Amino acid sequence: VIYGGLQALIQADIKRILAYSTIENTSLITIALASYGAFKIELLLIAALIYSVAHGIFKATLFMNSGTVEILTHTRDINKLGYLAKIVIKPTITALLSVLSLIGTPPTLGFLGKILLLAGLVSIYQVSVTMAVLLLVVAALGAALAVAYGLRYVTVYWGATSFSKPKELKLNTGTESSELGLSILNIALTLPVYFVVVVAGLASLDLLYVVPLGLATAMMSVLVYYTYFYVRRGAREESWLGGALP
Prior knowledge:
Mean pLDDT: 81
Shape: globular
Oligomer: single chain
Number of strands: 0
Radius of gyration: 19 Å
Strand content: under 5%
Number of domains: 1
């Protein structure tokens, strides 16, 4: 979990960011399944299933989106991007919705999967307090890293401090609508899946009380994004580069 998150955070290639992100996310799913096998807490199994579906949706969408970015700009280097929100609308919305699900912001399916996972891990304390604390710390670190590298991916669209349109820019790849349609599932499936889980008796409506925690996550995500944007802008000023721009 931690290795995948840290590697995703330092990559410059946007597809490498997503690849290492997959390691982090599938590790969380593995933790949920292994914990279910060890402690027989059904909530962990349903969390693993929902998170698997959520991950399949937002990660497939983001890989499609990264391909669109490469077709549009002929590069996958995140340091050469950051202006696409000013040029293309559908890929921008696609990336935003998918990243929100990746970092677990309500009302996305990724949020539902993560909150059920955390609730299941908390339940382990009834059997082993030590294991509950250990797994919660790992999951929390993974969630924090997901916020960091997720927002870093968003800088593909909003990260540039200055903007000059490339000479060779293909504005229509023919895949934008399909990406957008898939990304909408990140929100459209949340309530149906949640109420199916409630009807099946695998979770309680009381979990709605954790929504404020999700909103806090969203606010922290915004804070982290603007902090990163400010630091990145400062790092590109002449005074920080010995008087020479790269």
